[in-house]
Specification:
By secondary structure, this protein is α/β, with parallel strands linked by helices. Helix content is about 30%, strand content about 20%. It has an eight-stranded mixed beta barrel with strand order 1-2-3-4-5-8-9-10. It has a two-stranded antiparallel ribbon with strand order 6-7. Keywords: Signal.
């Protein structure tokens, strides 16, 4: 009986370890280049994949690259660049969200991604969402779901003051849209380890329901990263190991419980 108990404990321990396995990934606006993919996959299990123009860019360098990434063994984080609040004020935000959601679905299909893959909306502004931001997000989520995909949101997990308390965008999004998958950004050290190639459970972001945790950004944000400044390069960026330090090799670091967080393979 004692041997059985020990065997059971060992089995439970192995199962728990498997359940907690995490995978390292990266995201960046610039495509790193075809020649860099082999070296990148030695470290990273998945990569972001923009479905429209990344922030502050007039073209999308990721278009047409799914096949190359997939052939190298990468999983995917599908990402659609959303609108800032200044672009929503005074407009029909729900209709805009619906149109952008439909565009995200079309782009995903055009790139060959399977139905039911998770598409994350890039929600850059933090704190509690304003009414027009929530309306935009509602329209976007509904359109993505109608198109046969799963909707997710990239948003901040860092709490900001509000009245006598505080709130993070991740908490607000989860409250209003509890079925949306969350890719939570929290580069504050701690809980972030900084620019270290270390896969940890996404719940380490400080939001228990996170499916993905972005724990380092390039360039680093000084107000959040003073305790881990030495983990970044002298210029304040994170760079991919084994590659020249250029604009194409600087990146943000992510961790997830899956090697293919968007189920995009």
């Amino acid at each position: 009986m004692r041997h059985f108990a020990w065997a059971l404990l060992l089995l439970l321990g192995v199962s728990a370890a498997r359940a907690q396995k995490s995978y390292l990934g990266f995201d960046q606006n610039l495509y790193p280049g075809d020649a860099a993919l082999t070296k990148l996959h030695r470290t990273f299990s998945y990569a972001c994949y923009w479905l429209n123009n990344p922030p502050q860019m007039n073209t999308n360098p990721w278009t047409g690259k799914r096949g190359l990434l997939r052939a190298q063994g990468f999983g995917f984080l599908l990402l659609f660049n959303g609108r800032l609040d200044a672009q929503l004020k005074g407009r029909d935000a729900t209709t805009l969200g619906g149109a952008d959601g439909a565009a995200a679905v079309k782009a995903a299909l055009d790139e060959g991604f399977p139905m039911r893959a998770v598409i994350f909306l890039d929600q850059e502004e933090g704190g509690r969402m304003l009414p027009e931001q929530a309306a935009y997000l509602r329209g976007w989520i509904d359109a993505v779901r109608r198109g046969g995909f799963r909707a997710g949101v990239y948003c901040s997990g860092i709490s900001v003051p509000e009245g006598d308390g505080s709130i993070s965008t991740a908490q607000d999004v989860h409250h209003q849209f509890p079925k949306a998958a969350l890719w939570v950004a929290n580069d504050a050290c701690p809980p972030s380890p900084g620019c270290r190639l270390r896969a940890a459970p996404p719940a380490g972001s400080g939001f228990a329901g996170a499916e993905v945790w972005q724990f380092a950004q390039s360039p680093r944000r000084p107000q959040y990263t003073a305790a881990c400044v030495k983990t970044y390069s002298a210029d304040g960026n994170c760079y991919a190991p084994g590659l020249p330090q250029t604009a194409q090799s600087l990146l943000d670091l992510d961790t997830a419980a899956s090697a293919d967080p968007s189920a995009g393979r």
